[in-house]
Amino acid sequence: MANIKGGRPKGSGSAKRHLEANELVAKLGCSPLEILCHIANGDWKKLGYEKPTEVVSVTKQGDLIERDIITLQLRYSAASDVCSYLYARRKAVEHSGTEGEPIKLQVVYETEFGSSNEDPNTSTNS
């Protein structure tokens, strides 16, 4: 039977996936938002790491070359993702005058002699 109103059939799509995701989060006892916040803060201890760096290689002399586990790029990305939980996305707004005409801008210059609607750079002194 065709859906007269259009769209997805009841019980399918994103609502079902959201429910499954929420159930999994509850079952595992973790919060994706909390994890993102720990990453954004660079809190390696709360994420279960023993130290803030990891060994990536060893030089010929036996020196360890380490790097941060939580890089600045990862922290930035996590902070950006957290923002999507906290703030609504803004839509672009187009500004126009009456009936789509360009906006007329009037600049008023104030001086010690009073105010003027004229641009002092274009006025002529006789």
Averaged pLDDT: 81
**What is the terminal separation in angstroms?**
85 Å
Total helical elements? 3
Oligomer: single chain
The computed structural class is alpha+beta
Query: What percent strand?
Result: 5-15%
Count of strand segments: 4
The whole-angstrom Rg is 29 Å
User: Secondary-structure element order, as H and E?
Assistant: HHEEHEE
Globally, the shape reads flat
Major beta sheet summary: 2 strands, antiparallel
Percent of residues in helices comes to: 25-40%
Spans where pLDDT lies below 50 across 5 or more residues: none
- Kindly report the spatial arrangement of strands forming the biggest sheet: 1-2
Topology summary:
Layout: H1 14-28, H2 32-41, E1 53-58, E2 64-68, H3 72-86, E3 109-111, E4 114-116
Antiparallel strand pairs: 1-2, 3-4
Helix pairs in contact: 2-3
Structure notes:
α2 packs across α3 (72-86). The chain has 3 helices and 4 strands; from the N terminus they run ααββαββ. β1 (53-58) and β2 (64-68) form a beta hairpin. It is flat. The longest helix has 15 residues, at 14-28. The model has no long low-confidence stretch (mean pLDDT 81). It starts with 13 loop residues before the first helix and ends in a 10-residue tail after the last strand. The strands form 2 sheets. It has a two-stranded antiparallel sheet. It has a two-stranded antiparallel ribbon with strand order 3-4. It has helices spanning 14-28, 32-41, 72-86, and strands spanning 53-58, 64-68, 109-111, 114-116. It is α+β, with helices and mostly antiparallel strands and 126 residues long.
